[in-house]
Write the structure tokens for this entry.
Amino acid sequence: MRKKLSLLFAVLMSLSVLVAGSGAASAKEDTSKLNLIKPGKLVVCMTLQFVPQMYLNDAGRPTGYDPDLVRKLARDLGLKLEIRNTDFTGLLAGIGSGQCDLASVGLGRNADREKSMTYVKEYMPYNTILAAGASDKTAGTTAAWNVAAKKITCLKGSVSCTKLTEIFPNATKVEFTTQDGAILEVASGRADGVILETAIFGHYNKNNPGTLKIAKLEKDINRYFGWWTVRLGNTALQTRLKDWICERQNSGWLASVYRVNMRQKMEPLPACTA
């Protein structure tokens, strides 16, 4: 299984963008026991298509909340930084097969993923919603959307797809390998709704006003926190990264970087524990 994942990731990575960066820490620490793939370098996998959390700017530079975090992390640890940009499915395969030191894409925690990766700490709050076309007249109830005639899209492998299946099991589910594809299917009228995070919806709606709207339901689709994950069993790196996040969380730095990039106040993260 691990060999298959490695081969899958190799194919996907051949289609991805590779972005490298480096930064010197003010006081370099010994990272030789962190079990990094490449000594002296932190290899981070991201899916750079989620504006404003993580994306490529017009110059092709990784931009947003997650890139800002890992650049600071690499500087603090005295490591060179390599950001590997691949699609979401490829990212899951990459961390599962040990091709990345760290996956920074706000992964939700579930039992299946815990079989192939080690979770570090929550660092990103999410509120998942159902968005529909601006002229949609569907009643604001789960039952009205939970029918085969309703075509609902989501990003393949994401928490959104999991929630779609749980909450709307009778709807026609359509998975996309890119978030843009899932959104455009609704904006073009080929689908009725899309499950996605509020930050992504907000950015799309700002640039495409009058195209989509939030479908009002009896309750939120889902509220959860995204985690950093490392290669399965790399407890040394897990411990160091958890300490780093907690330091930045407790100082308020994490919330300030979130506010600058996401343009909203950060919902309080779970407290750090031993």
